[in-house]
Amino acid sequence: MLKTLLSRVREYKKYAFITPLMMVGEVAMEVLIPTLMAIIVDKGVSSSDMHFVLRLGIAIIVAAFLSLSFGVAGAWTASKASAGFASNIRKDLYSRIMDFSFADVDKFSTSSLITRMTTDVQNVQMSFQMLIRICVRSPIMFIFAIIMVYHNGGALSLVFAVAIPVVAVCIFLIFRRTYSSFTNAFRGYDSFNRVVQENLNGIRTVKAYVREEEQLGKFEEASETIRSNFKKGQTIMALMGPLMMTVTYCCMIAISYIGARLINVGHMGTGELMSIYTYTGQILSSLVMTGMVIVMLSISHASMVRIAEVLNTKPSMDVNENGERTVKDGSVEFSHVSFGYGKNSKVLNDVNIRIESGQMIGIIGNTGSGKTTFISLIARLYDATDGVVKVGGRDVREYNLHALRNEVSVVLQKNTLFSGTVAENLRWGNPEATDEEMKAACDVASASPFVEAMKDGYNSHVEQGGTNFSGGQRQRLCIARALLKKPKILIMDDSTSAVDTATDSQIRKALREDVKDLTKIIISQRLSSVMDADQIIVMKNGSIEDVGTHEELLQRNADYRDLYETQTRGGNLDD
């Protein structure tokens, strides 16, 4: 885990190495100042030697300036290293997630991946900064201050032989109690992000069913879980202040008592006793800070594990960098293909079908019959559990994954438009597309009329998610975007469901006449969208029940005939 994370420091290693050196310099100067003050008091002030006082006063100013300089430099290098480290982790996490298959994303869940890239990375960033800065500064301060107390006070160091174990035990007990609270709080962000994500993605449904109060209740519940855990941890942590003050004052009393006796017998100077007061604060505060670093590292351990889990997860779908990059044609063949999303679930069962290049294929079936899973295997969004899926005469696993997907365009029922312009969204299909090619694609998708009717045409603004367009307009733009890829296979998964039947008919006609070499696979619940297909595949319970033309299926397939008659009576077919 540590090896996985620390390898992400990369180009920021020099800053990570410089920071501890700066901390050593800062602590050395900081520890030196009380000793110089003691010398001034015991030798300069007591003898009224102003020249000596001035000379050492300048030395103290120089030491303070150097301490400040080392501290500022250390803070800058620590921030540079930790921010760069976090940036590299986020970049690598995002890159790894982009390589994930749908199955990999399902394994982690979207909300969990978001939490790992945000909250967990922030925890690791803070821990790394504390590790290279405070985790170096505090132990060194502790050691240097103990050495100076022993050097200046001798017997007074015995006070710390009692105080330090007491403080260490108390800190351990406090942090032990807070660890679980903070860990649970950070884990609660997964649930919190899931609630927020679901609510925002389904905001239209929430408002349509007037469920705002229920969703607010879920939000408050998730938020309260985080708040209560943080409150519990912070309440216990609040005991640290009184504990430190109590131990510090007890040490001061003991040191004052013993120091006064030593001064009376001439074994210690007044300045030396003053310096020991300062060192007492440095010793105890460094001990507390060391404990806090340990706790922070412990709390962040869960975040480190979660991040490393993603980084170490090998994508279940091999990109096959050396695979075939040319897809000969748009033919598709399923040979004894079965697929399940889990060990005990089978969505497709022994599917066998061949689709010739350039054909228009319709697919119908009840919800859960495996239609979407069927087309997902063609684009290799998932890999078949058993059997072979071929595109262009070759097993899809033999292709370079990116090359295969560039030849297979998938248009879903619910597509996404991104903030920008219409042209920018269309060019997702082909960044080099010309204006003429965009217009041609929009003509086929019946998107040209409403795009060109807009004030700025193809330069019209698109809100995030395409919320300033209707559902049917979004679907037509997404069809045009898919066509701009100039793929060999176009898959439309109920992607004209929000379009009226007349426009749907125009799109099918344009697809048949204007892109004849393109293999078209259309999934639809509306028979009018597939009636004129070369072949219609009827799916049921994960298997292909029948294949034929509209007329053939009407004659021999009862399920198809029942669906036709139902939609005819309902007026859902084209006139």
How are the elements arranged and paired?
Layout: H1 2-6, H2 13-45, H3 50-99, H4 102-108, H5 110-132, H6 134-153, H7 157-201, H8 203-208, H9 212-237, H10 240-264, H11 270-311, E1 332-339, E2 348-355, E3 360-365, H12 371-378, E4 386-391, E5 394-395, H13 401-406, E6 408-411, E7 420-421, H14 422-426, H15 435-444, H16 448-452, E8 461-462, H17 471-484, E9 489-493, H18 501-514, E10 519-523, E11 535-540, E12 543-548, H19 550-556, H20 558-570
Helix pairs in contact: 2-3, 2-6, 2-11, 3-5, 5-7, 5-11, 6-11, 7-9, 7-10, 7-11, 10-11, 15-17, 19-20
Short description:
About 65% of the residues lie in helices and about 10% in strands. The chain is built from 20 helices and twelve strands.
Average pLDDT score: 85
Roughly what percent helix?
A: 55-70%
Tell me the radius of gyration: 35 Å
Helix-strand category: alpha/beta
**Proportion of strand residues:** 5-15%
Q: Strand order within the widest sheet?
A: 6-9-10-3-11-12
The largest sheet is: 6 strands, mixed
End-to-end gap: 64 Å
| Helix count from the secondary structure assignment | 20
**Global shape:** elongated
Poorly predicted parts? none
- Oligomerization state of this entry? single chain
- The total of beta strands comes to 12
Entry keywords:
575 residues; alpha/beta; 10% strand
What does this structure look like?
The protein is built from 20 helices and 12 strands. By secondary structure, the protein is an alpha/beta fold. The strands form 3 sheets. A 6-stranded mixed sheet has the order 6-9-10-3-11-12, with helices on both faces. The protein has a 4-stranded antiparallel sheet with strand order 2-1-4-5, covered by helices on one side. The chain has a two-stranded antiparallel ribbon with strand order 7-8. Strand 1 and strand 2 form a beta hairpin. Helix 2 packs antiparallel against helix 11, helix 3 runs antiparallel to helix 5 and helix 5 packs antiparallel against helix 11. It starts with a helix and ends in a 5-residue tail after the last helix. The mean pLDDT is 85.
